[in-house]
Amino acid sequence: MNALPPARRLRVAILGGGFSGAAVAWHLARAPQSECLSISVIEPRPALGGGLAYSSEEPSHRVNVPAVRMSMAPDDPQHFARWLAGSGELEHDPDAIWKNGDAFPRRRVFGRYVAEHLAPYLGSGLVHHVEGSATRVTRDASGAGWTVHTSAGPVVADILVLAATHPRPGIPNALASLTEAPDFVADPYASAALSGVGPEASVLIVGSGLTSADMVAELDRRGHRGRILALSRRGLRSRGHPDIRGEPFGDFASAPATTALGLLKTIRAMLAAARAANVNWQSVFDQLRLQGPMLWAALAPPERARLVRQLRVFWDVHRFRIAPQVAAVLDRRHAAGTVDTIAARLVASNDEDGSLAVSFQRRGQTRIETMRFAAVINTTGPAHGQALQLNPALSSLAEAGLIRTDQYGLGIETGLDSRAIGRDGAAVATLLVAGPLARGTFGELMGLPEVARHAQAVAVEIAKLLVTLPSAQAIGPNATHRPHVG
Prior knowledge:
The chain is of the alpha/beta class. The chain is built from 13 helices and 17 strands.
């Protein structure tokens, strides 16, 4: 009897096991030719799928999108909602259901959903969790493969996917003198980051977006009743959800604007049309999200840069909405006068006599004010522009000329096929980028629906390599799926 011919199995290493990396692994594991793949996900956390966004055990940290709009499967928008209904989580968290019937569960619940859907593939060995931190990446001299050096040992692969987590928030220069102060919270999502903040403590939160709102909600749940000042350059607070959800409204794609100013004018016109039609503004921004990739593609690079520089902050506060439960806390605290949000720029800071002194200049004023706080919390947002410097694995790839920062400072430059662009301007065929680090190419790539669609697209690109990649490993068809860890 003749032996069966050997099967070609591509070794795929995914750097990062938060939602982006887990979603790529899940789509690959469900692909028709998944038996031809061996998938390793490198993630230091004990479970895949949670990452920075969905690992928090803090009860007040909730998803900021209704459950009916969250799904790992872009072609099945109700995927998470159905799982949630049968998970038992809502019975233990009645506050998750808002007055309009939408569910906003705790973030860790979504992490559990992702982990449970990956579990069968981890059990079969098709997907392997390398529980370690990536420290360096090297490319074979022949250019045919990769080695990811991790704290759990080296991982060898034919294809590498960069799905690294969001970098930690950058610390403003004016707060550099506080970095060693015990009451300065540099990473707001670190375990027990706010445990040392007393109930009557005066608190400065630097930033006024989603993370800032999370910090107010968490402090409130912990019994904090002191004064909180949120400070940001524009003083804009993230907006909330409408009482009644509507369908996406407007048309931005049939004649897409070619300048940032033109896009702004179109948005204003659509908002006016929405008001006339008694449609909420959120529906207009929902349409913007859906058509975002086409709008981004229609802008020349200088106009994209102008959009990021001048309009991004306005987009962020309307696009990234806070859960209504969190919005209710903010509204209550603002009404009580214990939370205030101002537009100002930081000037200087100092740790002195058991308090943190921070100087700032309010927008439109010349006078510099100095206030003392018991705690300062940094919520300036992920330092995406520094990702290649802060992440050692990405840094090693940048030093080797295999990746480079995109020209808008949003992450890693890629082609439209999600392949990384090297220092020489050429695409690296077996190096792909998944998730927010690729948004310089795709525009809107921060929200979960967009990240899920991008993960699916990256999985499709990898599947194509089963046919075209000559260096695929040939092994016997009856061999078990085993991790490629040295």
